[in-house]
Design goal:
3-stranded mixed beta sheet; 12 strands; 24% helix; 7-stranded mixed beta sheet; Rossmann fold; single chain; alpha/beta
């Protein structure tokens, strides 16, 4: 299995390290040619406007959209969740998104960098997927919040009554950074989709 990790900004190396520890070949995606032959994709965190603008400059927006249309397993974390959302609240007018998942996401919903936090989440879907039960320690850094969930979108976890992890088809979105913990269950959950 070959999983591409968009490597324009953010903790892409941490995602690659988690996937490689699971025996997955990873490809750092910086150009359209890097998308060839991928079996899945990770859109990591970072600053969502900067990532979309860098992807635009690299000529990646249309090739990424085509790959997303192929219905491969996709994980979008933090800024990646914003890029994959149908609607971004408080986004910039020049910010582009793929609209793959029918959710509305608000940028920096929990506040500034100083307001970042960590919390243990209950993720019932893990048990249903044959993954170890127990809380998932989530790291929220200038995190977005999912404020609307459309039909067919499954809520996997919540924080403060708001969805913070969802799944739609073979796509998983988290508003936190699962790659910054020692717990690989969100990556394994992606690989099982």
């Amino acid at each position: 299995m070959r999983i591409g990790v968009l490597a324009l900004q953010g903790a892409f190396a941490a995602h690659a390290a988690v996937l490689e520890s699971l025996g997955v070949l990873t490809v750092e995606v910086r150009t359209p040619a890097d998308l060839a032959g991928l079996d899945g994709l990770v859109l990591p965190g970072g600053e969502s406007t900067a990532v979309s603008m860098a992807a635009e400059r690299a000529g990646l927006m249309e090739p990424l959209a085509e790959l997303l249309d192929a219905d491969l397993p996709v994980l979008g974390t933090c800024a990646g969740a914003i890029l994959l959302a149908r609607e971004c609240l408080d986004g910039r007018s020049d910010q582009r998104q793929f609209g793959r998942v029918d959710v509305s996401v608000r940028r920096n919903a929990y506040g500034r960098q100083v307001d970042s936090f960590e919390v243990d989440l209950n993720v019932p879907a893990f048990a249903g997927a044959g993954l170890a039960d127990g809380p998932f320690h989530a790291v929220f850094i200038r995190a977005p919040a999912i404020e609307r969930v459309g039909d067919g979108v499954e809520v996997l976890a919540e924080v403060d009554g708001r969805p913070c992890a969802v799944a739609s088809g073979r796509t998983v979105l988290t508003t936190f950074h699962p790659e910054l913990t020692a717990d690989d269950r969100f990556h394994r959950y992606l690989l099982a989709r």
